[in-house]
Q: What sequence folds into this?
């Protein structure tokens, strides 16, 4: 693994990677090597116990709200049997030892941190406890088996030693070669409700985000970037910018101009005063309206084959009835609350970077490549991330590489700050997609043939990940959740194919990635089929899910908790959806009303089967948050490009869900012995179809385009 | 110019049009107040002027005068304000970036309405965006803070 990671580092910067294991998470988890047991981790890299008994857990992943600052610490603490009140966390530096157990590189994404680290972090805790026991046994001239350890204290008869007293001696001992992990029934911490460890600094303003990095001599830069996709900088005039008090330098970037100043406000005014000439983008520039029209044309014909089983054409021709529908979703910005930023200090052939990133290894490799040095000379200090949602995991390393270029050109340490407008217009969006779905039904109304064409940009095509995650023209992130839909398990004739047109608009993964649109298309279509068959949407789904007990249980539980089958309050209706993403199954029931053409979501009942639940309180928070994120896409999200330029710029014209629109949310985590899934993303996908299905139940208007817009005032 | 911030009078050198937000963050190293939009759309920069919530990103520093500025750092030295305690109890934070603004808005609401209803909360907090979607727990925490404040009196 180390070798492959090094290959990747070397080649990420040049655009051809050498990762042995493919990146896409579900495959990765399957592809993780099983034959040989991996070597035990080095406990010193993941854990420090100080003389006062405090336990510091080094996080190989980034805290961006999802709660690993607490969850990963729980894994170590469970096996270590330490005093939980003395546990704290730090982000680990970028180093090979912190590579993702399944992916090699150091990164956070794919809802994979907890399930990916479940064994490693518990093992570290067990190893450290074993070392502490051995140190105590040496002190007392006995054997570890005669000792007990609990709550940070080791006992031998009536004698006690604290972990703090034993730490120095323990860490000098050779690491154990094997350790025995607890059986689930022995867990004291895992599965219990634990409050977050990062709360104290986040409620007092002390938490350090990338934007808060400050040290003597640091300057702030604001960068003028291309006004349109495809525009190139022709020339610029810095004279007026340099007249702004506080502006110190104006330097070119790869395709832009950076104004370096003593503080943000001066840098921003300096940029406002810059004059720059840009080339016009080709063919008048990209237009999302035109692109979607082209996508619709493409959807009329089959694309690259994802799945083709049975005889779809014949089955469609012979079906008792047919149903066809088109679904569309727009480009979306991540709009993290903390706009992008990155601080860089270069010193000879060494470089220090402070930023909130999900992609330490990629950023480190790209920075090293730019500076002509090696990755080990690039130190990455990961700050708290003011939201990530995928935007801070960019194979192109845009916000880091740019800051490195600016700091080098400026010759001083620089914090590059993106304004909200820069962030909104800076590219790397969830791609727009068009789905054309045709279904042939038997006399009972069940799908016998499913023909599904997807059109939309590949997220990974053209990146260093392409050769690992794009196979036979199929970027799995474009189609995940269709062919493997539990509803289609018994559908013998299936065709799923994909067109991946290239456009000048840069794209990226966005919380729950392909599922954001595939769940909308599949769950809307299933609802259409239920109504076409004259059946109750729940009963119709449960009939299709006969062989899928986990799905049926999640959906059935959500329906009954939401009062499915009883009348909704006056003026409201319910809709439901269930979808699997990142190894977890989430069912959601939305209760909506419509007034004056406006959709209000009053309540959402969510039921989750994520296998082992490490921290139910954190899971509840992730489900609530994912539903809010998905509701923004369902009700508001739409990024428009005209003439190559992004139309929207800030929260006034790119609205996101606000408190007044937040429904009551009830979250139920099912006890489950299923394989552990992720939880940061999966609850995002089902909410849009659940709401659309509820709107149909209420108004008989079938809304097939996000954001949901009623055809006329209802 | 002189500014009364968190009960201390501080001297700053800044042009009058510089927003209070950047004076706090870049000149006074009070970085708990956050930049989110720069146009009073998101509430991440909420501070109090004489106890009233304002958006520091659109407040020129020249307009402050002798009014008292309170930032998240001035709410309590140790997170012991009832609203902060309620926030911890309800486990509200996720990424945490917007939370200073949420808390400052909640404190101002509770000063005006010690027992707010859900719709009072929705109205007062709808100017504070949270992309992590902590809204459900923000509501819970404000009700809890209301009880803590009344219990403490």
A:
């Amino acid at each position: 693994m180390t070798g492959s990671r090094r290959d990747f580092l070397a080649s990420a910067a040049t655009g051809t990677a050498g990762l042995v294991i493919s990146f896409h998470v579900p495959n990765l988890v399957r592809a993780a090597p099983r034959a040989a047991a991996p070597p035990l981790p080095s406990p010193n890299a993941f854990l420090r116990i100080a003389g006062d008994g405090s336990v510091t857990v080094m996080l190989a992943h980034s805290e961006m709200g999802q709660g690993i600052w607490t969850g990963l610490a729980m894994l170590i603490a469970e096996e270590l049997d330490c005093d939980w009140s003395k546990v704290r966390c730090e982000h680990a530096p970028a180093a090979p030892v912190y590579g993702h157990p399944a992916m090699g590189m150091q990164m956070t994404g794919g809802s994979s941190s907890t399930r990916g680290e479940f064994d490693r972090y518990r093992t570290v805790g067990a190893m450290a406890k074993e070392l502490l026991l051995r140190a105590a046994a040496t002190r007392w001239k006995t054997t570890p088996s005669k000792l007990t350890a609990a709550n940070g204290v080791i006992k031998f008869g009536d004698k006690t030693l604290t972990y703090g007293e034993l730490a120095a001696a323990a860490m000098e001992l050779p690491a154990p070669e094997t350790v025995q992990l607890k059986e689930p029934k022995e867990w004291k911490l895992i599965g219990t409700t634990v409050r977050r460890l990062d709360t104290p600094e986040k409620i007092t303003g002390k938490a350090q985000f990338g934007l808060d990095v400050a040290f003597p001599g640091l300057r702030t830069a604001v960068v003028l970037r291309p006004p349109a996709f495809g525009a190139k900088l022709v020339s610029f005039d810095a004279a007026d910018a340099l007249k702004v008090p506080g502006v110190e330098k104006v330097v070119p970037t790869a395709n832009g101009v950076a104004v370096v100043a003593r503080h943000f406000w001066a840098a921003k005014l300096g940029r406002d005063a810059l004059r720059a000439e840009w080339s016009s983008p080709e063919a008048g520039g990209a237009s999302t309206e035109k692109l979607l029209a082209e996508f619709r044309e493409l959807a009329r014909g089959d694309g690259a084959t994802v799945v083709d089983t049975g005889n779809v054409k014949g089955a469609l021709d012979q079906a008792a009835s047919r149903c066809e529908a088109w679904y569309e979703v727009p480009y979306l910005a991540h709009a993290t609350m903390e706009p992008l930023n990155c601080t860089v200090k270069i010193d000879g052939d060494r470089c220090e970077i402070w930023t909130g990133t999900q992609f330490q290894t990629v950023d480190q490799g790209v920075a090293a490549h730019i500076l002509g040095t090696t990755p080990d000379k690039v130190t990455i200090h990961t700050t708290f991330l003011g939201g990530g949602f995928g935007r801070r995991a960019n194979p192109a390393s845009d916000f880091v590489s740019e800051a490195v270029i600016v700091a080098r050109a400026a010759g001083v340490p620089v914090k590059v700050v993106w304004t909200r407008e820069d962030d909104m217009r800076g590219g790397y969006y969830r791609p727009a997609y068009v789905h054309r779905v045709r279904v042939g039904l038997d006399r009972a109304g069940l799908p016998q043939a499913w023909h599904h064409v997807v059109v939309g940009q590949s997220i990974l095509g053209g990146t260093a990940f392409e050769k690992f995650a794009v196979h036979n023209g199929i970027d799995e992130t474009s189609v995940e959740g269709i062919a493997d839909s539990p509803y289609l398990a018994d559908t013998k004739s299936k065709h799923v194919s994909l067109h991946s047109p290239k456009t000048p608009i840069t794209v990226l993964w966005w919380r729950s990635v392909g599922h954001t649109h595939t769940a909308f298309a599949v769950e809307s279509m299933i609802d259409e089929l239920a109504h076409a068959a004259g059946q109750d949407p729940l009963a119709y789904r449960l009939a299709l899910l006969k062989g899928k007990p986990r799905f049926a249980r999640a959906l059935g539980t959500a329906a009954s908790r939401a009062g499915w089958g009883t009348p909704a309050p006056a003026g409201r209706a319910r809709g439901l959806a269930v979808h699997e993403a990142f190894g977890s199954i989430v069912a959601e029931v939305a209760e909506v009303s419509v007034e004056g053409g406006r959709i209000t979501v009053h309540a959402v009942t969510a039921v989750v089967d994520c296998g082992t639940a490490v921290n139910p309180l954190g899971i509840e928070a992730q489900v609530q948050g994912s539903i809010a994120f998905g509701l923004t896409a369902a009700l508001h999200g739409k990024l428009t490009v005209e003439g190559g330029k992004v139309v929207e710029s800030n929260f006034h014209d790119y609205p996101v869900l606000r408190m007044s629109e937040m429904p009551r949310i009830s979250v139920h985590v099912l006890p489950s012995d299923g394989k552990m899934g992720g939880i940061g993303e999966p609850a995002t996908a089902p909410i849009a179809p659940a709401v659309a299905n509820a709107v149909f139940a209420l108004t008989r208007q079938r809304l097939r385009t996000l954001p949901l817009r009623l055809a006329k005032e209802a | 110019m002189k500014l009364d911030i968190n009960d201390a009078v501080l001297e700053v050198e800044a042009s009058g049009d510089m927003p209070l937000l950047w004076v706090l963050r870049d000149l006074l190293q009070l970085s708990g107040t956050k930049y989110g939009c720069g146009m009073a759309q998101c509430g991440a920069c909420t501070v109090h002027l004489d106890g009233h919530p304002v958006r520091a990103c659109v407040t020129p520093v020249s307009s402050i005068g002798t009014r008292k500025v309170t930032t998240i750092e001035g709410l309590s030295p140790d997170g012991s304000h009832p609203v902060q305690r309620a926030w911890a109890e309800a486990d509200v934070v996720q990424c945490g970036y917007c939370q200073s603004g949420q808390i400052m808005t909640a404190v101002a609401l509770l000063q005006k309405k010690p027992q707010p209803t859900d719709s009072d909360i929705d109205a007062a907090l709808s100017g504070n965006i949270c992309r992590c979607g902590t809204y459900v727990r923000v509501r819970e925490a404000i009700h809890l803070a209301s009880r803590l404040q009344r219990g403490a009196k």
